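agent: user wants the structure for Citrate synthase from Saccharomonospora viridis. delegating to structure tool.
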Amino acid sequence: TGYITYDPGFVNTGATASSITYIDGEQGVLRYRGYPIEQLAQHSTFIEVSYLLIYGELPTKQQLEEFANRINRHTLLHEDLKRFFDGFPRDAHPMPVLSSAVSALSTFYQDSLNPFDTESVELSTIRLMAKVPTIAAYAYKKSIGQPFLYPDNSLGLVENFLRMTFGLPAEPYELDPTMVKALDLLFLLHADHEQNCSTSTVRLVGSSEANLFASISAGIMALFGPLHGGANSAVLEMLERIKADGGDVDKFVSRVKNKEDGVRLMGFGHRVYKNYDPRAKIIKQTADEVLSKTGGGDELLDIAKRLEERALSDDYFIERKLYPNVDFYTGLIYRAMGFPTRFFTVLFALGRLPGWIAHWREMMSDPATKIGRPRQIYTGEKQRDYKPLSER
Ligand code: CMC
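agent: tool returned. relaying tokens verbatim.
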């Protein structure tokens, strides 16, 4: 009491203890529950990693099947929730649509309101894992005026999501295994990243004992911003602008270095990584694979590579330890898969969902948890006396 630490952006404040994700920003190390991200990327799947993050251990074959089956049984949205989509303008950004629909889950499942009822928390966990992909696909369908497709529960989570997003009722949807694998990998790589802005938001909201749906809905809105999840869309917009400007990478880097109009090299820099983001390394390879298959976006990939090379050899970026982060290449892959730019951040949300859930659950079961309530350094007026309106 009496002494308050001033730490804007919580750069040096450990707000919680957590056993979910380990990051060594200097070395570029990322581990989920102790497992290196490189090993998980190579051998695991998004659904298995979701289980690992939420329950703490890799599942047995049976546990994994049960988890996947339970999720599959909850993929449908309540028909009344479906009508929510009619109320949004057609050109609405899909992130607030996603957040609103997740928020509305609290009204459909009022059994979720007690955050300490373990059975209902478990059910809310499964409902979120199952319904968020359906909501996301509907948000997309709404934006292009196509009919919603009901989930096909014979498919896995990623396959189902791709089919609901790109399929049409009138014709069978053929899943492309390269796309399925790439999207599964991208979700896996985004699945958790300890106390980032959206996860901290989920925790802060949840610390007031708000339920899981309410907390995740808030997390989705934190992810919306261009400095966080919105960066993947912003990278692509930046690459498009450079392309329209004749592909002049040097000119763009000069603008960034001169801080012209506050322009930043999107997809570069990270609060924690002062080295190459290990996720970016894995993604760069996937970008090559997917783009060589679809043939789309080659010119933008070329610009991205030249931009990266140019930045990595420039003193401005070297001095500040700015390296490509997870989002530098993801946008190119999403674009090659056929997702519109505005939808990229929704894909980030789908990937981050198990991480948010894991953190909320960890916090709720931690006896040390207290309501999040930061202090401030007051810089306003000293006490002064009220003046009647006639004297002002
Ligand atoms: N381009 C140009 N300069 C940069 C960049 C960048 N992308 N990032 C940081 N800097 C500079 C910044 O101007 C500052 O320089 P100076 O000391 O001369 O003022 C210095 O580097 C330190 O930056 P900071 O803003 O204090 O760093 P931060 O830890 O507060 O910000 C960040 C981290 C990720 C918000 C920032 O690097 C950034 O804005 N990057 C671009 C957006 C982006 O790619 N975000 C995705 C992050 S990864 C996925 C996620 O977590 O959502």
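agent: one observation worth passing along. The pocket of carboxymethyl coenzyme *A is lined by residues 9, 196, 227-229, 231, 256, 264-271, 320, 322, 325-327 (CB under 6 Å).
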